[in-house]
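Encode chain A's predicted structure.
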Amino acid sequence: EVRKHFEEPSPDRPALSAVDAIKAGQVDMVFNTPYGNSGPRIAGYEIRSAAVSMNIPCVTTVQGASAAVQGIEAGIRGDIGVMSL
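Encoded structure for chain A:
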């Protein structure tokens, strides 16, 4: 569990933010999709930037997240092959 990037750590919030966890190498993949029209946009930018700087895959749309999940599931099943376009 991580706290929101813009929140300060406190006894009732985890010490690590998403950016801290990414930079610490504790994250393998980032799903960073917009939610509503409010809230600090800078947090999303910092999360994506941290993921890119650490060479961590970063998905930024719901459609991309769905495709990533389908690809991961296909990989687990061993159902990935090569086909011509």
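Strands lie at 30-31, 58-59.
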